[in-house]
Amino acid sequence: MALRTVGFTLIELLITLVILVILATIGIPSFTDFIRNQNAKRGAHEVMAALAYTRSEAIKRNTSVTITANNAPNWEEGWSITSGGDTLRIMNALDGLDISGPNAAITFTSNGRAANLTFEVCNTDKSQQVKKRTVTLDSSGRAENEIDGDCST
Q: Does domain 14-150 fall into CATH 3.55.40.10?
């Protein structure tokens, strides 16, 4: 009766290892760009959420509510939302992002309206593969988030 060995040969293991290395070499750069794009998307959503919160508080309180950058125009360093001297919410710095916005504070009136303005959100690594997010606030107080070119410019 012949003995039959079970397992893999060294050649089979080496070929499998080479294939895994090739796939990792191809996949890791695109995964890095994916993470950078998701980070910019997260930053744009944080800006939109802050604008929506500020608008809803202005309507709810029936008074003006203001959102101010901690270090305008560098909104990535965070912002605070205030109403009549009371601080409603503070957002800390967003690491890894460049967020440019208006130099002045944004005030929502009691009917939820504010001035037209634009925020640009990019990853700090200015790659052509990373897409720039633009958050636009119209005069009715509604914010829109869209992809607007790449972050290399």
A: yes
